[in-house]
Amino acid sequence: MSEEREELKAIDIMSSPVYTISPTSTVYEAAKIMADNNVGSLVVVEGTRPIGIVTKGDLVKKVLAKGRNPASVVVGEIMSTPLLYVEPTTPILEVAKIMARSNIRHLPVIEGQKLLGIVTDRDILSVAPTMIEVLTVKRGRS
Predict the structure, then answer these.
(1) What is the DSSP string of 36-80?
(2) CB proximity list for 46: less than 8 A, separation 6 or greater
(3) So what's the architecture of 3-135 in CATH?
(4) pLDDT tens digits for 72-90?
(5) 99 contacts 133 by C-beta, under 8 angstroms
(6) Which of 88, 102, 98, 92 lies closest to 130, judged by CA?
(7) CA-to-CA distance for 106 and 103, rounded, in angstroms?
(8) pTM of the entire structure?
């Protein structure tokens, strides 16, 4: 990996703006937003404060696979919390290590209480393909 890529920070590779949803919204609404915008996660916010995250995997494992009705389950019931996040200055190697240790693919970038963006495993691999080993250490293919 080149030194330039080693110096990249979360802010350099994050996607912004981030799609968000309220914890009182339904899982159906979350799925619609994800599908319409081709994203794999939504950050759950109360007002503007990030409090959790919901992913496509959450929808499948916590709702669909259990035969629950997406129109009657609210996001707050299935979101992952407390929210794991990184600061904008976090080096991408550290971001990749956090994702691998926690077995996650989406990591919000937050400064103070402000949601700035989100980094995905694909964002990391697009700028530093050699980090695939870091990202897959603890995670099997899914």
Answers:
(1) HHT-SEEEEEETTEEEEEEEHHHHHHHTGGGT--TTTSBHHHH-B
(2) 22, 23
(3) Roll (3.10)
(4) 999 999 999 999 999 999 9
(5) no
(6) 92
(7) 10
(8) 0.85
